Structure to design on (270 residues):
């Protein structure tokens, strides 16, 4: 038997005969509202994304503004009632910036952490839709469903399944839709090694350690394992991988924090 009292389970039981239930925690009962009117997540769920609420809120608004600016620059206009999916939404830092779109259309937040999705489902639905997914490249939506797909961290962690994830994203995109996907690439490496904001970060230290073997410096793709996987690409390799299914509308180095944002449109298949 599994008992869950926090309302934020790691994973629901899968074995036949197991029982589970969820009760609101003290944090749930005393959830304050943020500046945007949506609930502020507990600090325990912000770990790994931000040090505190002001940092999470600022970063989320900054990334959402970047997405909207890239679409505008490329002349991509979303429908009045858009369908949008945040792939790897975490605790919803970016997702919450799309509240107006959620109220007018359909906005989904997807993540592999059941704890984060359980909290978001309790506090963000409606107007948002939430679902837990696995690391396998499958999205539970019909072909051509979304006008906008964005993912800030998926391809910074996924290695051998990256090609399959690209095809799954391509499948669920509407013909005139767009995707904003972030990658670690050459510009990311330059920021990690040279930018004072990043060069002392854990990611920078891990990258330098991985490159202690000089043979690895010739990589096209470098996957660093561990509890927090990190995947780096040469920018030319990213372009090669997306070329079969997407038109590249823009490449914006180190704009999504230190990650490079690719703005893609699905190619038409005859």
């Amino acid at each position: 038997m599994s008992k869950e009292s926090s309302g934020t389970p790691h994973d629901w039981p899968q074995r036949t005969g197991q029982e589970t239930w969820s009760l609101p925690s003290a944090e749930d009962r005393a959830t304050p509202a943020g500046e945007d009117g949506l609930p502020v997540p507990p600090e325990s769920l912000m770990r790994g994304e931000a040090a505190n609420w002001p940092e999470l809120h600022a970063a989320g608004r900054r990334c959402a503004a970047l997405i909207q600016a890239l679409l505008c620059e490329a002349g991509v206009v979303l429908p009045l009632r858009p369908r949008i999916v945040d792939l790897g939404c975490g605790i919803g830092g970016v997702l919450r910036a799309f509240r107006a779109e959620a109220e007018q259309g359909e906005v989904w937040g997807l993540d592999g952490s059941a704890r984060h999705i359980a909290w978001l489902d309790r506090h963000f639905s409606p107007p948002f839709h939430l679902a837990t997914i696995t690391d396998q490249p499958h999205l539970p939506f019909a072909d051509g469903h979304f006008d906008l797909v964005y993912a800030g961290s998926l391809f910074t962690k996924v290695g051998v399944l990256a090609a399959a994830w690209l095809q799954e994203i391509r499948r669920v995109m509407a013909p005139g839709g767009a995707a904003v996907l972030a990658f670690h690439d050459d510009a990311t490496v330059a920021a990690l090694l040279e930018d004072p904001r990043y060069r002392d970060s854990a990611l920078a230290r891990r990258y330098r350690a991985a490159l202690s073997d000089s043979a690895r410096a010739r990589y096209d793709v470098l996957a660093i394992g561990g509890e927090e996987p990190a995947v780096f690409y040469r920018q030319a390799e990213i372009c090669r991988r997306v070329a079969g299914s997407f038109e590249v509308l823009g490449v914006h180095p180190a704009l999504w924090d230190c990650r490079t944002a690719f703005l893609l449109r699905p190619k038409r298949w005859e």
In short: Residues 51-187+226-266 form a domain with the Rossmann fold fold (CATH 3.40.50.150). Confidence is low (pLDDT under 50) at residues 1-15.
